[in-house]
Write a structure and sequence with these properties.
Elements lengths: L1 H22 L1 E5 L4 E5 L4 E8 L5 E11 L2 E9 L3 H7 L10 H8 L1 H11 L5 E10 L2 E9 L5 E9 L2 E9 L7 H5 L2 E2 L50
Antiparallel strand pairs: 1-2, 2-10, 3-4, 4-5, 5-9, 6-7, 7-8, 8-9
Helix pairs in contact: 2-3
Length: 234
């Protein structure tokens, strides 16, 4: 009897693995330069992302569902931050050119706070520096009001913000395949491998000078100097 049970179990495993392999694929997106293991092709949505200093950036959300589990990758393109910031009508307190750079530099923590830490009813159970393929970022784990669990990795690569989000139902195992598979691609769709930790480099200012305006800034802080205080102290 036991031998028969073992044979049945083996047959189930043999059937289950090909089915699993068919459902999950190594999805690669050349437009937004990322790859991830996910259950099939995603649904996509174009969005506008409001930054810390009220600029609106273009983005795309890629979504998957499998049973009660939900997966998504949000990609926000900060590469044109300077032009987008200048086209916006900011108050006198936020005219300095350095703010378009701060929007990029603070984008990981801003997303972590506004999209996750401040969600009503959530309990943050992990909140720390992280990296994937040596690209530095941040990782969060949360318990939601319905006791589902959300696992998040946020990274900044070549002035694109990437938010990898997986939510699984109460009692389900962590989504390790999705969590551990993100990669960043070059123009040919090949995975980028760094030899040491990667930290995002800001775009070169197009308007000249430190932060983008140089001597045109003036004021008490000096030409082109960065702001004296962060957003939280306004």
């Amino acid at each position: 009897m036991r031998a028969a049970q073992v044979v049945v179990a083996a047959c189930v495993l043999c059937v289950a693995r090909p089915v699993f392999a068919q459902e999950w694929t190594e999805y690669k997106n050349l437009e937004d330069r990322f790859g991830v293991s996910a259950p099939g092709e995603p649904k996509t949505e174009k969005i506008k992302w409001k930054s810390e200093y009220d600029s609106m950036f273009p983005g795309t959300v890629y979504r998957w569902e499998q049973g009660s589990s939900r997966y998504s990758v949000t990609v926000i393109d900060y590469s044109d931050s300077e032009a987008i910031y200048r086209a916006n009508h900011h108050s006198d307190d936020f005219q300095q050119a350095a703010y378009w750079q701060i929007d990029i530099l603070g984008s990981i923590q801003y997303a972590a706070t506004t999209q996750y830490r401040q969600k009503p009813g959530v309990k943050v159970t992990f909140d720390a520096f992280h990296y994937i393929n040596l690209v530095t970022g941040h990782e969060l784990q949360l318990t939601n009001p319905d006791q589902s669990r959300t696992y998040v990795g946020i990274y900044l690569h070549e002035n694109r913000l990437y938010v990898f989000d997986a939510t699984v139902a109460k009692g389900m195992p962590p989504p390790l395949i999705f969590q551990q598979s993100p990669e960043f691609l070059d123009a040919d769709g090949k995975s980028i491998r760094y030899r040491t930790y990667y930290f995002n480099k800001l775009p070169e200012p197009k308007a000249g000078g430190r932060g983008g305006r140089g001597g045109q800034e003036g004021g008490a802080r000096g030409a082109g100097a960065p702001p004296a205080a962060g957003r939280a102290q306004q």
